[in-house]
Input
Amino acid sequence: MNPRPDHTQLVAPEDGIAKGDVLLDVRNVSLSFGGVKAITDISLNVLKGEIRAIIGPNGAGKTSMLNVINGFYTPQQGTIVFRGKERRSMKPHEAVGQGIARTFQNVALFKGMSTLDNIMAGRSVMMKRNIGWQMLWHGPALREEIEHREKVEEIIDFLEIQHIRRTPVGKLPYGLQKRVELGRALAMEPSLLLLDEPMAGMNLEEKEDMSRFIIDVNQQRGTTIALIEHDMGVVMDLSDRVVVLDYGKKIADGPPDEVKNSQDVIDAYLGVPH
Amino acid sequence: MFYRTAGQFKTSYQADHALFPVRQDAILLAVILVFAFAVFPLTASEFTFRALLIPVLIYSLAALGLNILTGYAGQLSLGTGAFMGVGAYACYKLISIFPEMNIVVAIALSGFFSATVGVIFGLPSLRIKGFYLAIATLAAQFFLVWLFQKWSWLYNYNASGAIQVPNINLFGVTVAGPRASAIVQYYFVLSVVCVMTVFAINITRGRIGRMWKAVRDMDIAAELVGINLMRTKLMAFFVSSYVVGIAGALFVFLWRGAAEANLFDIPLSFRVLFIAIIGGLGSVLGNFLGAILIVALPVIISAVPRALGLPLDAATVEHLNIMIIGALIITFLIVEPHGLARFWAMIREKLILWPFPH
Output
């Protein structure tokens, strides 16, 4: 086995926020669909460089929270401050420009495309050559393509998926699809990476691999990560701080040990009548 | 045996991004091009050009345009015939208003008219998908054909209501109109199709192609990797309708010589759609294979009894022809529902490994 290559050039972009300062601040956000309240007056923040976990029983509003953060839903109340800029609403495709990338609970890859193309697609926004150059291919368009290919190959190397570079992702097993999806998110060079159940449906070995990648992304690239996960062992080991949601409300927020011993959290998971 | 990739190593990403990573493919294409540019023109008869080679090329180009929209960007369209009509009428008007205009320029410009119309009728794609979008493009089909009939300015107030291609010279050679020779028209069409195909391949394998395929495969995820759905879909409509419009201009100017509005009616749209589906959606090669099957095979089959001297009357031949082609299409779709292009890809994979099974 070769020694793990050095991926120090894969650094999260500079965004003028020092490690440990607030990168994302969600302030008093409420979201409802008709009469159903998905999120009720939740505030939480994510500090630069940390791994932040969002946990809670099913239907607690975790995924809704991620959707609010990356602009997929617009909250009825509250504001979101990302990198010091306040916003109420934005289009989902603008989130990438701001430096937010995410993966999905159910894998959302482009099934007809190869692993390589999927990850390259993550860099579409950064590629600028217009259709005129694309038509000619040789020259600037090809140079740009190769420049980005090199970055993508670093990610492929990092995630150890060299052998499936050319395979259409629809044919890959679930664990690898999750890894490719992480690769696509990394290709966007986000300063905040949102992972929605990165380990759902994986076996122990795959979970260990995925945990290792998440830690590496966080430590080597300095990417801030917010993740939703149901495997408590993984959550408690990986994350720096945990926020617990239940029925759209925040019931605990703090370091894993503190959260683990909170009576509210225990009640929420064991199902004490409200 | 001939298809061995052994010994072909790539040492740079540039080599890996080459159009033909396998050398044999490049050789095969070179052979086909030699046939197209040298062997066919030397051997083919006037009939072969008019009934076989020129229409196959033009239909391939139209299917290529549709394939960009449907196969790559995933937006189903039933308005191809009408968009071809826009290209043809635009070219006709350009030539009538500016008789001195170079025919190449006129055809290239007429593509922009159909592209604009395509984008306008593509606007519903921002809200609706799949079959519903197909119905919206069907509206374009009916509306445009109606317009071609009713707006007499389009056909210069002819009593016949048809457009008639005048004699047009390019560098001293007549390329369109009644006096043009088939071989010149063949070379003209072949050159345009080759150039457009190269452009289409380049666009579809680069950034824009990936964005189209991303929108096709999962539009929500595409949006969340930062792809602007509106721009990407409309760009697909633009490029697709441009290519289709060029095909329409060639269809009338370099092949039919004259056209009425109902030539661009829905049977033409379906014909092009069948070529794209049978050839293989999401493939450039498939359009050519599909066009050969749908356009050329009937001509070849109906010529066979005559060549063999069989005493069959014309109507019987025609019926047999339809039955054979229908059976072939069904067989191909059962054997390989993803089209002839995938069929070829599978044969190629097998050939690379042959005689070993894995």
